[in-house]
Amino acid sequence: MGYLQYVNVKQGTFSEHRFSNGNTLPLTQLPFAMTGFSPQTEDRGGWFYHPASHSLEGIRLTHQPSPWIGDYGAFLLTPQTDALRDTPSGAWSGYRPTDAVLTPNYLKVRFLRSRTDFELTPTVRGCKLRIRFPTGRTPYLSVFPVYGKYTFRVDSEKNCVYASSDGARGDFHVNFRTYLVLRFSAKIDLENTVCTDDYLHVAFCNPEVDADLATSYIGFDQADVNCTSECGCVSFDEQRQKGEAIWEEYLSRIEIEPTNERQMRTFYSCMYRTGLFPHKAYEMQDGQAVHYCPFDGTVRSGVRYTDNGFWDTYRTEYPLLARIGREEYAEMLEGFIADYKDGGWLPRWPSIGERGCMPSTLIDAVIADAAVKGIVGNELLETALEGMLKHANHDAPNEDLGRQGASAYLKYGYVPKDVVDHDSVNLTLDAAYGDFCIAQVAHVLGKTDLESEYRKRALNYRNLFDANTGFMRGKYTDGTFDGSFDPFDWGGDYTEGSAWQSSFAVPHDVDGLAALYGGRGKLIEKLDALFSAPPLYNIGGYGCEIHEMTEMAAVDFGQCAISNQPSFHLPYLYAALGETQKTAYWVRKLCEEAFSDADDGFPGDEDNGTTAAWYVLSTLGIYDICPGKNETIRIPMLCKRARVLGQDVSQIV
Question: CATH assignment of 277-651?
Fold first, then answer.
């Protein structure tokens, strides 16, 4: 059975800066590949594609994991004929969105202005191109810059072009460049080719142009190696078939019998999204993996992965991969730990270099989950534990690294609100959960004293519970709570939410959390209040409305902001407390009302596969409320039947 036919790569692309239906891109890309491709309808920063647009500026080679993070090492490919324009805003063409073919393994668009058909099929680090220009006009392929400083060069002897970009955001990337090579079948027309410091217009002697494209983070020689190894031995159609087989294998790891066609399309569109991030950031030399090290600009041995926000992905993406992609998970973790070896700190939000976009060190949960599920060996865990202990006990020299407020947390048992500028509650709860994850890894490694110490530290969440209001609240260094409190205030002590969304982030000790409320029944009453409360919000510490507020209020799931990750586990808390029917009710309601396969198919940001993975797991009726514990909550499946890697869902853990 073919599953690609059910994938809508545009799912979630109908988004804008102030309201997210996914904030996704329609990526033509192999699973977890280094390089992806997307149409660029209009460059509006991170929002450069919109499905309703009838304009097309070109096809972008992209690595962008989120519009909030931005792109790096990007190039724009635009066919032109005769009347050249030197910018994408001048070279843009009309196109018919309904005629475009956008799939995971194949892209085809027609540029109406130049009357050119543009086809692409991806490899791991590049793609194969097939471009058909009209006869009677001079055909050009323009390579435009996107962000950063670029170089362009034409090699007439090899009939190819080379380009590079240093475009990357953040502070943690030394001497970074993306190197691009394009090898053409049609002879380059040197007389009409225009090569400047700002753009490249490659002219051809023939209207039928086939090309091999490859990228590297190491150099032009390595880009040539990548081009030969990935593109040199296959035709366009063979690579397209190869990509189809790769995606079919990934999608078929879970087979469902749906209740209707919509569920089938939503499920496999979500499955596709779980296979995009993180990106490989390593290359092969003489059969050995090597990678660019962003911390010092050197080339080092081993694998590396990037473009992943652990604050988001630890909750669902990695628990899903633990079931359907253990080998990929193991290699990803090896790559993440390479960052600790290379730069001294485990990653938080790597996007070529560390971006530190979100607070806390939730890679702790990714490591602990791999440990308790036997995904990685003890040697790698020893190194991982070393990194976990470092950020648990030492302040980093930069706020983008490590745990914020680590030394204050050690001193007070919580992160005081007068020590950090914001997020004090979430930093404390995440630190307590991180301590639990350290205890779990210590247990696997047989370090009983260390395990005992961190199990005690994992109870520090109790230090912020306010019994009078029934919420976790920010506390000063003198041990007092802030005098003013409104549970609908966002920001301040809370990350992308209010006290309603943040106070239940104790996945490792649900019974202990219930005890603070006076028992399981009382916590269930609090959850009932959460789901029945109006979706109100105050801008609070943000000082302005952020899109997550808008999205929560656009639907009525109470204070359960399923549009954002802190609410993902809220409906599952009922089942953890013995009320499985309530979990089943809310999960079904959320899946059916907040998700679809349409271009506006997500309730909020689809961050690196995590929102899509929530839907996949929920459809299967399985959920790990606490990554790092080898425990699964089960509710009735939303589909008729399902198999994971050939096993009935009822048989998997």
Answer: 1.20.1610.10
